[in-house]
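ESCALATION

Customer reports they have been waiting on this structure for their group meeting. Please prioritize. Original submission:
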Amino acid sequence: MKSITYKKFDPSDLDSLDMQELMDKLAEFFLQSGFQSPYGDEFGEEDGNSLDQLRQALRQALEQSEEFGADEQMKRLMEAFRDMAPEQQQEMIEKLIERMEQEGYVSVADQPPQQQAQQQQGGGSLGEEGQVRFELTDKGLDFLGFKTLKDLLGSLGRSSFGRHDTRDLATGIESGGSTKPYEFGDTINMDVTATLSSAIQREGLAMPLNIEYKDLQVHQSEYQSSCATVLLLDCSHSMILYGEDRFTPAKRVAMALSHLIRTQYPGDTLHLVLFHDSAEEIPLSQLARVQVGPHYTNTREGLRLAQRILNRQQKDMRQIIMITDGKPSALTLEDGRIYKNAFGLDPFVVTSTLEEVSKCKRAGILINTFMLASDAGLVHFVEQVTRLCRGKAYFTTPYTLGQYLLLDYLNNKSRTIH
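Update from on-call: job pushed to the front of the queue and completed.
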């Protein structure tokens, strides 16, 4: 006879803990951009990747049980954590880190060999906990991107999302339109019923049935354009100044857009370019670790790099999505030196930057700008960019950036083609 064994609730049993929900609560910690970080100051770390910082972030998440939803078993687990002795709490945190590593959300690695050698020369111990570091894995990044995308689309009232639909019809595998006579070059997506009907109307029911070229009918499917996008992200120092973190929400949106393209628009491409004193392309897998620095805003160099990337793409649409909160304040000179001027709109910097915008227009590259600030200099510059390239400009905030950007991406291609 089958029996069920009941046991007393054991706080050390973490099998019931929803790791995805826990990862969601740790998102701010994983994506921190250097804005008033409570972790870096205490432990002497600037990038927030030490294991001690992860332990502290987990402790804070576990102590805030009211944020974990209405699951009674989880609530009891969180309440039990607060009643534990410090040694038991530490043991639970260590087990949580092990589970996060086993499920592939983070990877834990010891210090690099160079630091190990230096520490050995200095007589230190290789087992010091402060030297152990962790990395957010591709699975962890993918989950954060999916969760952000789901939250953003949910706030827009969209239950589902799909490929970029247009009003054009083409022959393809998925039929979504009416039948048309076959023309040379069409995909052989044969409408058998319409083809036979055409032959019967001409020949009658005599067998064998003679099917001629003009009888051939094929299904039409909705034409769906492909798009190459460069996300141009400002990481100058102003992105974390003035009492507001503007860079972390921008990173969240970048991951959400990456997840949307990878899962729903496999024919599209997305590249990420950071611009500051200069500009550089980075893999999306490195996005969570990017932080702002004491940099100026070299918009022209970012546009140059984005243009080189897009010129290699053979797509129906090529566009630049620029997220910034400051006017151009730096320029790369011909000899490689960086010219900087943060005071007002420098005519030399602005003119050179607008020349690069004109090159994008001549190459058929659209520029859409999302402004995270409203100072007169930035607004004036963005107005000139929009006028030159016939793109769009959005004045938004870190809280509404994702909604504006995703709506623009989902609707952009049909508006541009037609």
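Sent to customer with the following note: The first helix runs from residue 19 to 25.
Escalation resolved.
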